[in-house]
Amino acid sequence: MLRKPCPKNQCRQCWAHAYDRDIHKRLRPREDCGPCVDHMRNGCPPELIQK
Prior knowledge:
Oligomer: single chain
Helix content: 25-40%
Number of strands: 0
Strand content: under 5%
Number of helices: 2
């Protein structure tokens, strides 16, 4: 699957998790993704923001 490139000022991890279905394929129905929940609660780390 071709992934869209991450635009400037967006978190690379959040972008990948939003557009690559393979990342969440292993989760059960209604199970939350740990890294996604972490970014929703604590924000995205500056080192993951696309420059």
